[in-house]
Amino acid sequence: KYAEHTGIVNAVTSTKDTSILSVSDDKSCKVWDRRQKRPTVSLEMSYPLLAVAQSDEHVYVSGIDPKIYAWDLRRPSHPVYSMAGHSDTVTCLSLHPEQTHILSNSMDQTLKTWDIRPFVASQSKRLSQTFRGHRHATERGLLKASWSADGSMVSAGSSDHRVHIWDVFSAQELYDLPGHTGCVNAVSFHPYETTVVVSGSSDQQIFVGELS
Questions:
Q1: Full-prediction pTM beyond 0.85?
Q2: Quick check: helix, strand or coil at residue 123?
Q3: Of 54, 78, 124, 200, which has the maximum CB count within 10 A?
């Protein structure tokens, strides 16, 4: 139990080493060493944070301020760069399996991918693709997003009770799956079998299915 945040903790992610990252309404992202009870690094922002992801190079955070900020933990005084494109709160960040892109879900009704490779010429060229079709309703939940194991598909939670899955390269919607009777809060792909998908909903059910 790590008790250092002063606001609601909205997202937590773990890394390959001994670190855990958490973001909170207290406007901070904290990096925890699992062997200690206090954070080793605290990244301070001006707005509540709702989403976090980490690559081998950087920590990525976003939230009420819809920009996505990249931080280098070796120089935690300020972000290395930011990525702008969303017009409303970002509810989730998800790292590509090969750490080449970040996936973001936003209350502006879009899902976006961003190129985070170091050789991108300018920050304005990092936005790769925009996906549409899912919905964020008035309850403004923290709907999650995910990549398939091979990085060829993405999916996101949606308030229309359906599971939406897109092709990464064409941005075309491949699947629009019914079944839930409440908001779909999260969709996740099997870590090895690309065609197996699991979804969790406010209807208190978890569905596991195989894509045709």
A1: yes
A2: helix
A3: 54
